[in-house]
Every structure is written in structure tokens, then in C-alpha cells.
Amino acid sequence: MVPCFTSWAPCNGTHFSTHGSLVRQFRPIAKNQTCKFSTSCRRRKALLVSMSNPALKNSTTANTLESSNMDGSPELPDTRLDQAQLPILDALKTEANSVRAGFFCPGHRQGKGVPEPLREVAFSERNGLFAIDLPELPALDNLFGPAGPIKEAESLAADLLCPGGNKHFRTFFLVNGSTCGLVASLLAISASTLSKTMVPGADGPKDMVLLPRNVHQSVIHGLVLSGLTPFFVEPEYDANLDLIHGLTLNAVERALKDAGPHVSKRLAAVLVVSPTYYGVSSDLQGLSMLAKQHGALFIVDEAHGAHLSFNQQSNDNKEVEWGYPKSALACGADIAVQSTHKTLSACTQAAMLHVHRASRLVTVETVARTLQLVQSSSPSYLLLASLDAARWKMANNGNECLSKARRLAQRARESLQQIPGISVLSCPKPFSAMDDLRLTVLLDGLGMDGFEADDFLIDRGVYAELPSTNHIMFIITDGNTDHEIDLLVQVFQELSEVALGKSLETKLSKQDDEATHAPLPSSQSAVQIIMPHGTSAMRPRDAFFSNSVEILLGDSENRVCATTVCAYPPGIPMLLPGERITRECIEYIQQILEKGGTVTGLNCDEYDEVGTGEMNGEVVDTVAEKRAQMVNTARITVVDA
Fold first, then answer.
1. DSSP letters along 550-618, please?
2. What confidence score (pLDDT) does residue 127 get?
């Protein structure tokens, strides 16, 4: 039996992977079972290539002759690495040449969608990319105190993207991604509320942030750094499709009502993720009004919605039955963070932070100060220039770019819907708006998961943004082409034929007609998630920076967690720093491990699915025994009592 690697999987279960760190996962395969596409498993081959890399091997491995020092003692082996290797550059060249159709971030699609002014400079013989890789020379301005071209570029972006333009909003260019924008926003709240509560006669602290549990990990990091207290509200979760959506207005209103005035008085901000990784948009106008009623800031993590300011709202131009999402700023957000590189044409890591000049609790000046804590003091002008060029492109050709992307996405959607065994996600209830440039292909009818499908596609040069258990997601931008859409549809047609037993190069067992053509879930309505969570015991900051100790998971009941623990599926953090561990959480985690699922944040002994192995000094024979051993030896970091 051959092990099969999954694709990159999110570290803490949010909308990130292009807006977040990723962890390489090892997907176990049951005993006597092989991966359907193991003969061409791209990730298995990648592993073998890395294992055979001379730079990773002892340079004297091939020499079996014993050697000794002058005094007769054995000579230690030479462990120096081969410095002739270029592992990152070689991997980039190989992977870039393998992509025939890319549907992942960044949105410029390997340069096809790069704005023309940037292309002319970057690829010119006289200048070129490295010729403009300059430091903060006097004429080039300063990112932390802009007064020249950076200030002008940020003002142009605010004028284009923000209601009321630069008069009402301050736009900050970010070179550390949306991550630093979110962290800086939380730090600014902490700085502002702390100074106000220190005034004699002031009310109690406004130190609480309402947010969904499926926030990006940078928000959790921001809570740790800022000392703010989270108040979590469950996002909508579709158990049939294993998809996490956003917050609903009803869920937030109900949670605040149940929590009582204690939370309302302390509420400093309402932070939501919209659109989600899968393109679903929350009722931002309603949530904005609710935040204002509670005297709180309204912050939107709009990392996947940098293009939404250019949505054509005319019903005459609509190609889908649901509504197009509106931008967060148009819906009343005080602060919005956008990953310009994800859906527009900026370089990876380039993002923007928009702050209302009349925002409650925080000032533009405070945000500018906190950004200095989380941005590099040597910003890349290549990233800054790509932000400026992305703004220029959308200002001059925004509607045309979005129309092209929508046409490609609609053609892909209609064609994929015709392929047996698959369907494409439509806007789920109770939400009313979804980004039609996100294509989430549901694989229930093929009898395989998104990781197997991803391997099949990659072997044919088609790269998705995110595979998961029951689906695989693609992002369409104006950088894509009709040829790439044709290739996407063609490869899915091949996949369907193979999976359904019509065309077999690696023969698959035929299934009953009933099972093979099993209908997809009839409803895409979201339901409240019932996964257990820890209970709040202390602030994330206090837990994270406390003295900690690693203990067995089975012995951790009632201890306070000092790390983030997240199970896949569904990909929502179950335990966060500062939360008390319950027996329900322990049992849920153990069940995930027993079934071969993935849980990040634990220290688990790695094991090989192939043949007899050894764990903790004990010989274990079967996959079940190995998993049981993992359950028994899994360790978690807790606050030292």
C-alpha cells in the first residue's frame, strides 16, 4: 500500500491558505486500501524527490569505508550540505512550468493579469524587475510617514475604493499581507480603550471583540498581542457539505441578548469575515447597524473581497440567481482589510487597510502607529508598486476586468453542472449574496474526496485553490483565459468518467448504479455547528504568555489550554489559548484521531501507514493500532497550574 499526501490544508480552520499559514498534512489510507490515483500521485512523487535531494542527504552516505582520526578515534561523518543546490528556486521553476491552468491566488495568474504599466517596467531591458527593487531613497517616500509618492498612491486608492474617498477614509498600503492589517486594528483598539479607561471617572474597559470562531489565525494572534477578550459567535455550518459560512445577523443578536449587558458594555468591536473563503457574504449592513447600536467598531476581514467595490449591481447584468456581495465599506464598515493580491493583480503579500477617519474608539493616527509594530521597516517597493498598479488597472478597466472574469466563471459553472457526479455550490440559505467568481465543485456523486480529485487535476496541469473533504474550490479572475476554462472542464469530465467507472486506465471497481449516481444533497441550507468548544477561563494573551507544560490529552480535562487546537473537518478552532478543556472536547478530538483525521495544535507521534512500525518503543502492526496509540500518546500544551 502506498501513502497518499493531501494538499496543503489550513492551519487553524479559517478562510485562509492564501490568507493564512498552511500545514502539510498526511492523509491516512485504510489498511489494504490504496489511493485511487496512487500510480500518479503528485504529492507522493514530490516526497520521493525531496528524499532523494542530495542537499538533504549526508554527503558521505555513499562512502562505506571506515575512517579514523590520528589518535585512532572514529571520525565523525561529514554532515555538511551540498551548497550547489537551489531547492526553492528549483521547486518554483518546476511547479511554475507544471501549471497549465491555475485557479489559485494571486489573481494575476502567473503574470497574465499584471497591469500593463508594471509589465512594461518589470520586463523591460533597461529597467527590469531587480532594477526597481530599491530601498527608501529620499525621492521614494517612507511607508511609515508618507508625504510623497506613497501618500499619493494611498490617496488614489482611497478615492477609488472608499465611499467619500480620501476625505472620509485613510488607506494604508500593507506589505505584510492582510495579517498585519488585522493585528494592527486590534492593537489600535487596545491602545485606544486602555488610554480612555485610565481617565478618572471613565466607565469600565471596552475590551471585548465579538467574532466568529472561523476567523483567520492572525485575529487570534491579534487577541494575544492586544490583550482583548474574544466573545465568540458560531458561524453557520453546512454539515451535509462540510462548509463553514459566515455570521448571520440573527445569530449575533441572539448571542448578545443571551450574554446580557455585561458583554454589551464591554463590546469594543464586531469583527466578521465576509466574504468567506467560499465567497458567501454576510448581511454587512445589518451587522454594521448592530455594531453602531452597541457603540462598537465594525471591522470586516474582507481579504477575499478586494474586487467587490467594482461589482455591477444592475439586475440586467446579473448572470446568477443570487445577489452580488457589496463591499464592506459601502455597507458601513469602520475598518476593512483587503488582500489585493488574492482577487486583483498585486503581488503575493500586498494588501490594503482602509480606516474611516471618523471611526469610534480608534483614530487613523493610532492605526498608523500600531502598523509600525507589525510591518517591515524595509518594505519592498515591488509590492508597493504592484498595489499602485493594481489600483490603476481597476480604475481604468475595472468593469471590463470583472465582466471578463464573470463570463469565464459562468461558462465554467454551466459546463461543470452538466458533468455526471458533480455540482457547483450555489448561494446557501439563509444568505442572499455570494461571489460568483468562487467555484466550489461538490464531489459527492463521484465517491471520492477533494484531495484525490486535486491529485488527478494536478497531474494534468490544473491547479485549484483549496481541496477539502467533500469539495474542491477554484478562484476565477480576469487573469484566466477561455483555454484554461476549457481545460478545467475537460479534466473534470475525465475525472467523472474514471470515478464512475466509464473509462479506466487504472481500473476502479464499479459501484451499484444507485451508489454511483447517488443524488447530491437536496438542500444547501446552513445549520448551526454542534462541535464542542472550550469555555473561557482567561484572556488569550494571559494564557499564551503564561508558564506552560505539555501533558497527555486524556489527562487535560479542566486544564486551561495555552495553544490553538483545530480539527479537520470542519476546520473551526475547538480550543483557543485561555479556554478550559472539557471532557467533550477531549473525546471529540480522540474520535477525530481514531478515524484518521487531522488535529493541529497537538503533539502527536508521527506514524507510517505502511506495514509494521514502532511508536513510543512499542511495535504496532495495524493502522487501527497505530491510531489508537496516537490517541493514547497525544499531548497538549496547557497553562502550568
1. EEEGGG-TTPBB-S-EEEETT--EEE-TTEEPPHHHHHHHHHHHHTT-EEETSB-----SSSSEEETTE
2. 75
